DNA sequence: TTTT
DNA sequence: TTTT
């Protein structure tokens, strides 16, 4: 159930190969960064301007497996999901916040040729033999907490996703 | 022009009255925080769970004036916009990031009664006599960067309303 | 699975009370018409113009029960779904087509006051005692085809509320 | 201005080359049909099922020119727009209705390789030398009525199309 | 870090 | 009529 609508729709390109990890439960978690960009001419100078926006996207479970297997650096992808801002502590113990899109639907874009030319080297894993397309949808259950990879329990809010213990290592994963 | 789609759709309630400032150019900038929430039952314990997500939304120019005048704490609102992550430096000079929704469209929800009961005290400003509705759409020009006038951007959460501890108290903050 | 994205998002008001029927399987099917409108000034004459668009929305199963119970003429509602064009034959045997939005998510808008003032007389049915909110989401199973039980699908408009001739009269139909 | 939200988002493939015509005003109007499809397994029989949905999309003015020039049969495309149901009379004078998506934004998907392999034979027209991408956005003015039905462009006049004269000829254009 |  |  929900009160309110929290919906994000992205079409963009993966900045790098997806990273897949596993939660203690065994469920997969895949992270990607998607770029969208916008260009315009400066009104004063007439100079062409461009701004690229990077979006952190996280997939869970089955969707994480599919994303991990089929997406690659440069892949064009449609993602639908919701915004989630996670709180974590940096080395100095200060609260910091990261906003991500928790994906509920994903679809690869660009047909066969495109996919064929992407040359998938070393797929992260197998999602099973029966999946043959570039589409996947998350079950509508609430996204699981993202406490894979963690050494100690999260200190703060109970029902929220656990703050990954060692956010330094997580932090190192953030390319910006 | 753009490459990619970067779209956010929110329906939620304002956590507080909007804050309107002005850029050197004279253009208005209005910030609000919108809450969306989700509730479910824990699969193990069966306990009801709730998570409220707070979204920082920024309006520019005409849309900022309308938002500043018509929205109030508790207002239910539809917002469409795009994600933008801004980089700023905290006191210690460290890079930090804040993700906001730059609104391109806004519409007040909940009809006349609702609006009437919201008792708009001290409207921030006038948007002119001919505006009579709860709808507004931004011109499609790229949003200006938002470093007008201010010393340090605040991080996402500190200046936001606190996440309510339970739903009853949250309800009390909202006039319906 | 899907190839492609087929998504509709509507926020509007119900033109009349919902109609709920039952499929042979026992599953509920609810139909509503939602109005959205747009107004502008004619560029030549400067005259105010308005266009109201009516959307046929169909809900299935659990969502149909909730829509049937909670929505009423005038209710403001958020609907998300997908487009489906159904083919049928008119009396003369000619093929005709009707486009509907098959809802996958629904949320009532306008808070308690709003809902309270809508005075729900004769709810179509009961959806059970434990539902207390204005939100519902369809399971992701493909919607069943809607030719249960009935002889001839009606064309799109005849059974819809008439488009109001002007905005004042339209207002009178809606309880706010 | 608007009351309500009327939004459609499609990602799909063009069923055939776009058709571009010109309104008396000189503004272009382009029609395409976009397919989206969904597949699933029948719950009883376990048989794989597929349903393809066809969406009529109409572009106006600049967007129509771009769509006409860059899209081709098979092109994968993102379209955002709004639903509009038009009323028209068939040969026997009966009222009939057609629902279309009036596009406000369009973006070609699938990158260079993809586009290159689509081998654009006979582009419908020129949209000018400075357009080099697969993206376009409509001005936010209300969609004009659709009375193309003229063979000759009247190149000079302002971009707002006139009100339609009749729809009989339009009838002939509908491929279903 | 992607893409055009 | 597309696409997988």
What is the β-strand count of chain A?
Answer: 8
Please describe the biggest sheet of chain A, giving its number of strands, its sense, and whether it closes into a barrel: 5 strands, mixed, barrel
The number of helices of chain A is: 3
Order of helices and strands of chain A: EEEEEHEEHEH
Quaternary organisation of the protein chains = homotetramer
* Most residues in contact, chain pair and counts: A-B, 42 and 41 residues
Terminal CA distance of chain A: 34 Å
| Broad shape of chain A | globular
* Structural class assignment of chain A: mainly beta
Assign a percent range to the helix content of chain A: 10-25%
For the residues shown, what is the average pLDDT of chain A? 75
Low-confidence stretches of chain A: 120-133, 140-176
The whole-angstrom Rg of chain A is 18 Å
Strand order of the main beta sheet of chain A, please?
Answer: 2-4-5-7-6
- Our estimate of the beta-strand percent of chain A is 35-45%
Motif (Important for interaction with partner proteins) (chains A, B, C, D): 171-176
Pfam families (chains A, B, C, D): SSB
Region (Disordered) (chains A, B, C, D): 113-176
Keywords (chains A, B, C, D): DNA damage, DNA recombination, DNA repair, DNA replication, DNA-binding
């Amino acid at each position: 159930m929900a009160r309110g609508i929290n919906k994000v729709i992205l079409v963009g390109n993966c900045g790098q190969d997806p990273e897949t990890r596993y939660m203690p439960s065994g469920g997969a978690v895949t992270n990607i960064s998607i770029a969208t960009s916008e260009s315009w001419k400066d009104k004063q100078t007439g100079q062409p301007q461009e701004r690229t926006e990077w979006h952190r996207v996280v997939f869970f479970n089955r969707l994480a497996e599919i994303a991990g297997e089929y997406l690659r650096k440069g892949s064009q992808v449609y993602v639908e999901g919701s915004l989630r801002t996670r709180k974590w502590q940096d080395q100095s113990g200060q609260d910091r916040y990261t906003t991500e899109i928790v994906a509920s639907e994903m679809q690869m874009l660009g047909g066969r040729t495109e996919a064929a030319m992407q040359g998938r080297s070393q797929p992260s894993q197998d999602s099973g033999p029966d999946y043959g397309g570039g589409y996947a949808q998350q079950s509508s259950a609430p996204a699981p907490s993202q406490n894979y990879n963690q050494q100690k329990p999260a200190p703060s809010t109970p029902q929220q996703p656990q703050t990954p213990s060692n956010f330094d290592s997580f932090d190192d994963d953030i390319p910006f």
